[in-house]
Amino acid sequence: MKVSRVFLLVFTVFLFSCDTGSDESAGDNFDRGAMLANWADNIIIPAYANYEKELDALVSSVETFTADASESNLVSLRDKWQSAYLAWQWVSMFEIGRAEALSMQSYSNLYPTNPTEIEASITSGDYNLELPSRRDQQGFPAIDYLINGLGSTDADIVAFYTNIQTGSSYKTYLSDIVNRLHSMTTEVVEDWNNGYRDTFVNNDGSSATGAVNKVANDYIYYFEKHLRASKIGIPAGVFSSNSPDPTDVEAFYNSDFSKALYEEALAASEAFFNGQHYGSATKGESFATYLEYLNSIKEGEDLVKLINDQFVTIETTGANLLDDFSEQVETNNTLMLNTYDELQKNVIYFKLDMLQALNIKVDYVDADGD
Amino acid sequence: MKFSKIYIGLLFGATLMSCSDDETTPSIETPDTYTFTRDGASTVSYSGQSTRIAMNHEFGGALKVETNSEEALLSMYNHQEGEADFSDADLNASDKNLKSKTAASADFYSDNATDAAAIKTQIDTWIGNQHDEVFPRWNDAASAGNAGQIADGTSTRYVSAEGVEYNQVIAKSLIGALLADQILNNYTSTAVLDAGSNIEDNDADVLAEGKTYTNMEHKWDEAYGYVYGGTAEKPSDLLKYIGSVDGNENYTGIADAIEDAFILGRAAIVAKDYTVRDTQAEIIRENISKVIAVRAVHYLQGGKALLESQEYGGAFHDLSEGLGFVYSLQFTRKPNTDSPYFTKTEVEKFYEDILANENGLWSASSTTLDEISNKIVDAFDLVLAEAAL
Fold first, then answer.
1. pLDDT in tens, A143-172
2. Are A156 and A114 in contact (CB under 8 A)?
3. What is residue A27's predicted lDDT score, i.e. its pLDDT?
4. pLDDT tens per residue, range B178-214
5. How far apart, in whole angstroms, are the C-alpha atoms of residue B40 and residue A13?
6. The pLDDT of residue A298
7. B309 and A110: CB-CB below 8 Å?
8. Taking a C-beta distance cutoff of 8 angstroms, is the pair B203, B272 a contact?
């Protein structure tokens, strides 16, 4: 509630700034096209290529496992699931173009997942994974349940797949949800490779539908909702009057993997802000260089430095978190809350200071949750 | 912008001042909370209101279970004592229900059975629409002209062919038709508070038979109960939206203003000061009416913005809530009058206008949404940008 109020205030401020300055922003002479090209060619497309490669490996390990549901094949499948899940953290923020049309984020990583509905679908064999109501029954969290959550040991889990009566239904569901992740990704990758890249780079205007505005909004939305809230805030109980909930963490059934996913996402968001090429230390045009170009000053300090210093503070604060966030919220939730607070400071820098400097309006509103 | 903030500040200031003036009346003892006793026993009772709030919660949930029959839903709305309509045995045993208190206030409907019946029928119709139009397409995707489900952020909404979420329309309409109508036009009305020998009895501390309270005290408590009679987990919908409006910085203080008026009004009854009591009733009427108006504008404007960016799921959810709050405007009460801010005919016209284009909400007109928002804003002396937050 508090957040949304602050946000709306911001929104109002921007409405005003737009009235007076919407024509000036195009005249700042920064080469937006070069920034968009750096994003597309050196960050987004390579990150998707890597993600697709990891999903290829996941698909084939599922094929191996469904042909021979052994414990060693389960271990191998789990390994591929973890690699693909980490690779996902590098593309999750780019909900634009085909990914936006597909609502890829919510179909790939909506958690907590819904075991009751998953089991019902496996039993009935009747499910349409393209329906919005099925989003919490597919993607990485649902795979997590199927390969980590069915039993307490690998032997117990494998037993579900080798069961004479029901084993094939479990295999079918697992294959279906992994294939859907893969097919959505293929669609997005093909779109980038077959024309969308140029559409994106050429859409360099300063209107609300310009690519810079859209990416800025996607990026901040991702940082606020998916990184700060879903990975840290919600498990820590920030948004409910109840106590923290260990079942709300990402990868709950493999919860000692939850910190790794969070840290990967944080690294991806920091790299994107600085225009760092995917898988490389090289940097290109970015929000950081754009802000430096505009010589943004916040309280006499450089906004880029403020944001990057804050990234360091976030990392330092979170460094002592346990690998297992479920255990963390139950043993020392204060550290989760501290991490949340540090993340929130960059939300403010992004949403207020950066967007104001770039003369971009926030295009999303917080739902009031009812 | 500036002017209106000052204006609202003044308004609140005036309200607060009138409270403190009253508090200086030596004969009225005003407690900090709604706690009143006689010979050591509590005289506060609103169990019937708590029961209906609990029924309303379960009914609201049942509207989203696509396997429910129409008969089961209608029976939850119009529960009969002993019928197994609810999961809670206490609710099943109760002789209370929601329908008999819909559009049932003394001031508005005792001589207008025609409208009272039409409004009850309208709720029944919406329940039927949810069952007949939305339930059969529960597992289909919605599109313009076709009912089904649609994503709204991480939530899934279930809408009619026109994009209407009937469960939202029903819930938000009952905030007016049940809660506000009973509070503003029934239990804080002199026709009810002063009925029969209530004044003589209250003056002489003659208690209701077998009770710790006078009839007049109890009537006031029943008004209070419709706002505050829920539980922390399941509050009354009205209390929830009083909180939402109070959370808008332009209306901070409205929740306290309402609660203080309830406490002072009840204290005035104990002190047999009916002038102070009636002043508090007007404060309650003005502010609860305002809550409904602000939420109506908030949702119409929020829905308009989402529709313009083609975020249909979010837009339909907001506009459906907006339709319900608009419908609720007919149960508001202009202070010091016997009239609502908008008549039944007017709100029904608003409702129709919002849905007038092909496929209803799918192509709702921004101009129409603005026009209706502005009419509400003008009637309540609000500022559009402030209420829209």
1. 999 999 999 999 999 999 999 999 999 999
2. no
3. 59
4. 999 999 999 999 999 999 999 999 999 999 999 999 9
5. 55
6. 58
7. no
8. yes
The Cα B303–Cα B297 span in angstroms is 10
Question: Does the ipTM surpass 0.85?
Answer: no
Q: Could you say which of B141, B155, B302 has the minimum Cβ distance to residue A131?
A: B141
In eight-state DSSP terms, residue A297 is E
- Enumerate chain B positions whose Cβ falls within 8 A of a Cβ in A: 139-141, 149-156, 240, 244, 247-249, 302, 305-306, 309, 313-314, 317, 385, 389
Is the Cβ pair A1, B247 closer than 8 Å?
yes
Q: Measured between beta carbons, which residues in chain B are less than 8 angstroms from residue A363?
A: 309
A104 or B20, greater pLDDT: A104
Please, which residues have CB within 8 angstroms of residue A201's CB and are 6 or more apart in sequence? A33, A36, A37, A40, A211
Yes or no, beta carbons of B156 and A5 under 8 Å apart: no
Distance, CA of A286 to CA of B183 (rounded, Å) = 58
* Average pLDDT across chain B, whole number: 93
d(CA A326, CA A256): 8
CB–CB contact A131 B302 (8 Å): no
CA A266/CA B21 separation, integer angstroms: 57
Q: What is the model's pLDDT at position A369?
A: 46
Average pLDDT over residues B296-301: 98
Determine the Cα–Cα distance for residues B119 and B86; give it in Å rounded to an integer.
Answer: 24
Query: What values do phi and psi take at B79, rounded to 5?
Result: -60, 140
What letters, b where the CB count within 10 A reaches 16 and e where it falls short, cover B185-215? bbbbbeebbbeeebbebbeeeebeeeebbbb
Residue A316 to residues A222, A303, A319, B108, Cα–Cα distance (Å):
21, 20, 5, 64
Of the candidates B74, B188, B174, which has an alpha carbon nearest to the alpha carbon of residue B131? B74
Q: Which amino acid is present at B196? A: G
What DSSP assignment string belongs to B94-123? -S--SGGGTT--HHHHTT-HHHHHHHHHHH
B389 chain-A contacts, CB cut-off 8 A: 5, 8, 12
Q: How many angstroms away from the CA of A4 is the closest CA of chain B?
A: 9
Judged by CB atoms closer than 8 Å, whether chains meet at A131 and B309 is answered as no
Answer for the pair B123, B202: CB distance below 8 angstroms, yes or no.
Answer: no
Is pLDDT above 60 for B25? no
B119-126, long-range: CB < 8 A, 24+ apart: B119/B177, B119/B344, B122/B173, B123/B77, B123/B99, B123/B170, B123/B173, B123/B174, B123/B177, B124/B74, B124/B77, B126/B166, B126/B169, B126/B170, B126/B173
- Cβ A133–B156 below 8 Å, yes or no? yes
The candidate with the shortest Cα–Cα distance to A100, out of A7, A217, A223, is A217
CA distance, residue B62 to nearest chain A CA (Å) = 16
Residue ranges in chain A modelled with pLDDT below 50:
1-26, 368-370
B196: phi then psi, degrees, rounded to nearest 5: 55, -130
Chain A residue closest in CA terms to B149: A132
Residue of A nearest to B298 (CA): A368
Chain center to CA of B245? 13
- CB nearest B149 (choices: A12, A133, A367): A133
- Residue range B129-155, pLDDT digits in tens: 999 999 999 999 999 999 999 999 889
Alpha helices in chain A (DSSP H): 2-21, 32-38, 45-67, 71-88, 98-102, 104-108, 115-124, 139-144, 154-162, 167-191, 197-202, 211-221, 258-273, 287-293, 303-318, 325-331, 333-348, 355-358
Contact state of A110 with B154 under an 8 Å Cβ cutoff: yes
Return the minimum-mean-pLDDT range out of A286-290, B18-22, B76-80, B276-280. Answer: B18-22
Q: Pick the closest to residue B262 from B209, B217, B329 (CA basis).
A: B217
